[in-house]
Design brief:
alpha+beta, 5-stranded antiparallel sheet, 17 helices
């Protein structure tokens, strides 16, 4: 099984999902997403490309492997996925030229080079950039080295739009000129830290004799920040292409001896690593203080819950298994650790309880110190975003679109209290049942500010213990969803205008593209709470 297979004039992109797993996603809605086909008929007379849309045409299942594929036809059988081949000067030049020409024609330029396929036959060159969102979902689900080399190494997760495209084009230049990726760490989180700290070797220290001006342009593209991404010149893609052209011509002209060049590189890296280590040490120490405060506050929270009057404590007695499961997941959104402890027992739930505890404390602390930072559940975020205020930071933490054995939860179940003396269902004594569940995990990355979403699916086990149902195990797998936070906000603001400021209709209209958006019913319920002053 390969991520990309080319056979019988068909391109097959593996989702890495079985039919059962695929049916629980909305990946089929991406079938019509457009990729970009670039063809140069006479390469020897100049690389002038013509462009057209291309998309996968069908979804097929391989019964032997029990895997679902997106498939599409093209009259070429010798395409090579670029992430499977060595990127050389000529290949990089072709890619940069095609992307530059596409941008000048106002076409949507792909952000990931890893999703490109190349066929060079006689004097004809064909490049195919696969649909980006669809490719990302498949590559991330496929995982392993294919995901790393086809996507992770090419992207800057902190950027979007033209800035993200410029970064990828600069990575292409760097890879072709040096044989290495500028940010080679294969751990996603560590690589993002390296990008934030600009922990890479600038081209002038990587290629002896490279043109300084050309190196400067490529280096600039590799160090774009979220704050500076809107300051890039409109012709930056052309500048990168020109810089690469200058760099490849001058790269072989050594200006200093190999020994002196190596010494310069080592001195630079020593200085850079020391500077970054100091910065990270300060960052770690700050984090330790916050974590210590969070742990202390969390212990106080748990202690206060433990000594509360027994009569006031929540209980699952009198609740159905589905209600118990609902209570657990809605307590994540409400960051109610007391309820989580009341409905779930066992090691499998400790990560959820720890995360909710820390989020509760961090949210309280940030509001206490800044008065402008707040963390909300997914169903609340759209109402805050619609009334965005300068200086206020609204982040997300929680789950959305919970489905329990086919039942679409509105996250409105209520636990009983011991003082209510609910009547238990004694017929269930000793039983244990399993429920299928699926939901989206939505949270804001604390370092990057990007909204990150994962689709979770699997099951929970409930066991009848002492007159009530309790959750005793959970087993889920998660798959990340790829989208741009900036585009989400722009899409939502645009939808707000189209829907005359109706937050619910504006949000729901985007649910096909962003499947984690809560249902209309849940948003309406949340709106009612906000109108009643329940924040």
């Amino acid at each position: 099984m390969n991520l990309i297979e080319i056979e019988e004039k068909k391109i097959k992109l593996c989702t890495a999902l079985s039919e059962a797993e695929f049916s629980k996603t909305r990946y089929s809605s991406l079938l019509g997403e457009k990729g970009l086909l670039a063809i140069c008929e006479n390469a020897s007379s100049g690389s002038q490309f013509s462009f057209s849309d291309w998309s996968f045409s069908s979804i097929q299942s391989d019964q032997t492997e029990d895997k679902v594929y997106f498939t599409g036809g093209l009259a070429q059988t010798d395409f090579t996925p670029l992430f499977k081949s060595q990127i050389n000067i000529k290949t990089a030049e072709l890619l940069l030229t095609a992307l530059n020409q596409a941008e000048k024609q106002g076409l949507k330029v792909p952000a990931s080079i890893g999703a490109a396929l190349l066929c060079q036959k006689d004097d004809k060159i064909t490049l195919l950039f696969l649909p980006q969102e669809l490719f990302y979902n498949c590559a991330s689900a496929f995982g392993g080295q294919d995901f790393i080399s086809s996507y992770l190494m090419w992207e800057n997760p902190l950027l979007d739009g033209r800035a993200a495209q410029s970064f990828t084009q600069a990575v292409l230049c760097y890879k072709a000129l040096t044989g290495n990726f500028p940010y080679p760490n294969q751990n996603k989180d560590e690589r993002t830290k390296d990008i934030l700290d600009k922990k890479y070797l600038p081209l002038e220290y990587a290629v002896n004799g490279i043109d300084a001006k050309a190196a400067g342009i490529i280096n600039r593209a590799l160090t774009i920040t979220k704050d500076s991404q809107n300051t890039l010149p409109k012709d930056f893609s052309t500048q990168i292409l020109s810089a690469f052209d200058s760099a490849k011509n001058a790269a072989g002209q050594k200006t200093v001896s190999p020994e002196a060049f190596t010494k310069q590189k080592e001195e630079y890296l020593t200085s850079l690593n020391a500077k970054i280590e100091r910065k990270r040490k300060i960052r770690r120490n700050s984090t330790k203080i916050i974590v210590a405060a969070a742990v202390f506050a969390g212990l106080l929270l748990l202690l206060s819950g433990a000594i509360k009057n027994h009569a006031e404590q929540p209980t699952t007695q009198g609740l159905s298994p589905t209600q118990v499961t609902e209570c657990f997941f809605q307590s994540i959104n409400e960051k109610d650790v007391q309820i989580m402890y009341a409905v779930a027992k066992g090691k499998a739930f400790k990560p959820y309880i720890t995360a909710a505890t820390n989020m509760h404390v961090a949210n309280a602390a940030s509001q206490a110190y800044t008065f402008s930072s707040i963390n909300v559940a997914p169903e609340k975020w759209f109402f805050y975003q619609a009334n965005e205020k300068p200086g206020r930071e609204v982040s997300i933490y929680g789950i959305s679109n919970l489905v329990i054995d086919g039942y679409k939860s509105l996250l409105d179940a209520k636990t009983n209290k011991n003082k209510d003396k609910p009547t238990p269902d004694t017929s269930a004594t000793g039983q244990s049942i399993r429920q299928d569940i699926s939901y989206y995990i939505v949270q804001t990355n604390g370092e990057t500010g990007e909204i990150e979403v994962e689709y979770a699916s699997g099951n929970v086990t409930l066991t009848w213990q002492k007159k009530c149902w309790l959750l005793t195990d959970i087993d889920v797998t998660v798959q990340p969803l790829n989208f741009s936070t900036q585009e989400l906000k722009e899409d939502f603001n645009s939808s707000l205008k189209k829907n005359n400021g109706d937050v619910i209709s504006a949000a729901v209209s985007l649910s096909l593209r962003y499947p984690w958006i809560p249902s209309r019913e849940l948003l309406e319920s949340e709106e009612a709470k906000l109108k009643e002053g329940i924040f």
